[in-house]
Structure formats: structure tokens, C-alpha cells
Amino acid sequence: QVQLVESGGGSVEAGDSLILTCTSAGGTFGKYAVAWFRQAPGNEREFVSAINWGGVVTDYADSVKGRFTISRDNAKSQAYLQMDRLKPEDTGLYYCAARVLGTVVAGLGWRSYDYWGQGTQVTVSS
User: Fold this and answer.
1) Among the listed residues 22, 17, 16, 12, the one whose alpha carbon sits nearest the alpha carbon of residue 119
2) Cβ distance 110 to 36 under 8 Å?
3) Neighbours of 111 (CB within 10 A)
4) What is residue 112's three-state secondary structure?
5) What is the pLDDT of residue 90?
6) Residues 99-119, mean pLDDT to the nearest whole number
7) 3-class SS at 118?
């Protein structure tokens, strides 16, 4: 029912910035919570950030708090992840996920999300 597509990944140097975009089709985007997860080679998928249906409530992993900003534009059916002061440990495949229940609950893992994109690669070199 819902399709998500990530874009904006790339290869950058430490300290640089990137913005990722999640574009949605189908469903009612403005009713869903949206989250970003990432997975580094050999590691488990980890939570990065989430935003509630109206864009008012947000949540961040401690590792990215103060450097990353999540936002959304429901009129465009898009969500974004602004990543500043990137570090090599930020390297990974970044996924956009949507949850039909549109509230944000701190610490929700990937199994709580209903729809997923295919990911966009972010590589940060030192």
C-alpha cells in the first residue's frame, strides 16, 4: 500500500553535511510516524531518528543528537534527515520507515514500523 524511496546518500568527508529525503507514495503520509534507521557493515540495524505524524514530536539516538535533524513536509509526502558534522561512524545504509500509528515512542525498534524503503548509502571518510 505504501512505497518509500530514499535519496540523497553519497560519499563525503568527516565534518561534511548531507540531507536525505524519503519520498512516499500511497497511503496517507500525514497520518504516519516516520523514522530513519541505519545499518553499518556487519552490524545490526539501529535507530537514528523519528518524527510524529504532525512533525511536532521528534526523537533522536544519543549518537546523533545535536548533529542530525529530522523534519517532514506532509504536503509533499516527504520526510528528511539533515545530517551535519558527519563522522566516519555514521557510515551505513540509511533506511526510511513509516508506522501507521503516527505517534512517536522513544526507543521503538525497527520491528515496530510497517513500511520500509530500500535504503540509501552514506559513506563518511576520515
Assistant:
1) 22
2) no
3) 6
4) helix
5) 98
6) 94
7) coil
